[in-house]
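Repro:
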Amino acid sequence: MNPVKTHPDTVLGRLAVAARPPRPCLSIQASNWWTRVLLAGGARRRILTGADLSIAKLDGAYLRGAQMRRATLPRASLRGANLYGADLFHAYLNHSDLSGADLSDAELSGADLHDARLDGANLRGARLLSADLTGADLSEASLVGAALLRADLTGANLFHSNLYRADLSGADLDGANLDGAVDLFSAELLNVVWSERTRWPDAAVVREGSVPIEGGRYRVQGSGNSGADLPAPRLPVS
């Protein structure tokens, strides 16, 4: 295999340097092209913890199970990337393009995803606890079984997203668009905060199960499988 030379100031150079491990590690799994790039930097496994990959072009990249805690990826392009089971805890992915990416079972708790594109992404079983998803595009995304507890979804677009058994407990949906969202009936919505700007399939039904709070907003008292003391009508399936 001919070695691939990378300049330290380029995206590939930063990726290769970030992938260099501090101690012996497991072998990597990647496409032939990415394997050459990572091996050029001395990589032995997909450790990109704290890596600076700002504005990186990683469309279709194979990053399954990658360790990318606190990685910096603002405005990066990861369209259709395989990030199954990746650890992106507290990663900076604001304004990034993850449309069509596979993020199933990924760890994204505390991640900054504001104004990110996640349309059509697979987030099945992903953990997004306290994640910043303000203004994010999650239209037609699969959030089946995803954990979105206390996530900030202010102004997020969840049009036609699949929320089957998703846990949105304590999430902020002020101004979010949930028109056509699938399986809200089974989602956990206890303590979800919303406002008149929030678009539901049936706002009147949600209002019946909510109480007003400060700032012209409302809090859901119980729905779906929450088991809350104050009963609320179940949300209709779109």
